[in-house]
Specification:
CATH topology of the largest domain: Dna Topoisomerase Vi A Subunit, Chain: A, domain 2
Distance between the termini: 58 Å
Bound molecules: zinc ion
Number of helices: 11
Helix content: 25-40%
Low-confidence stretches: 88-103
Strand content: 15-25%
Number of strands: 21
Number of domains: 3
Shape: globular
Amino acid sequence: MINTAQILQRVDLKDLVERHGVELKKSGREWIGLCPFHTDTTPSFTVVPEKGFVHCFACGAHYDAIGFVMQMDGEDFVTACHKLGGSDAGEWARREYRAAPRVLERPPGEVWVPVYPVPEHAPTWAPGVRGKVWNVKRGRWWSMTPSRADAYRDAAGALMAYVLRVEMDDGGKITPAVTWCIGPDGKAQWCLQPLPEPRPLCGLDALAAKPDAPVLVVSGEKCRDKAARLLPMYAVVTWCGGDKGVGKTDWAPLQGRELVLWPDADDSGRGAMLGYVDGSGLLHEGVAQLSHRQACASLRVIDTSGQPKGWDVADAIDAGWTPVQIAGWARSRVRVVDVQPSARVVH
Ligand SMILES: [Zn+2]
């Protein structure tokens, strides 16, 4: 019988995490470091030995020692317990695991360069299909089954990258970009590596295929996918990286285009589309300012205020709105965006 309470009580959580290659610094009663479950640049990962869990404030990863070993080592529950000394072998297994050096297939932190078009022999990412991606930073493979896989294509339709959506065990989600990268020895594989900045829009192929169509700018790949299917009269685009990714995106392809912005119905969503002024009076540019600077032909926004918080075009489509209903509602809500030049801009 596996006694999980005993395992969790005996385990040295900080030591366990460090043996998995995470450097930790003491912070009060906790330890902090770079999260091994997402590409972390600021230490977001907390180890709380007295409460017996690890937690990432960025990606939401949250595990006890057993869950941590399952996730990091790719083990099932029983094997993870055995590794932590919870088997009949008891101390023997514990000692062996402690003594085992951490073997990396490759050193972490190597330079992997994103390349495209992604070759045809590359494994295809698809919802519900398990795939593996090289975690450049950690120097190891990561297996996952995405619930979404949205392709980013260039104007000619060549595949540049995917943005995946992965539901985590604790109910959180992450949306990593995976790019086809060439490593130091010339080997190419899927890597957990963001698109280089400025990042391409999602929908460049639609922009090119419909050069005279108005452009509907929506927030996120799910909205883009659903709106593109239901509203073929538009070229539908979005950007990656969420509301904070707006400023890291290349908006030049919108030059000369007639834009309609459909913000998510919350402050963050509206700020991403229209920009916002922060507490110190600085303007954080949104899609409106950035595409205006790229000389888009016209700029309109659909007023989503009064809708449920976070409501978006995908919600309307999921609720059964027809293209005619969406167009009618949007017509009653659309207004011209007046972009004011501002001297105090944050990029
Ligand atoms: Zn994380």
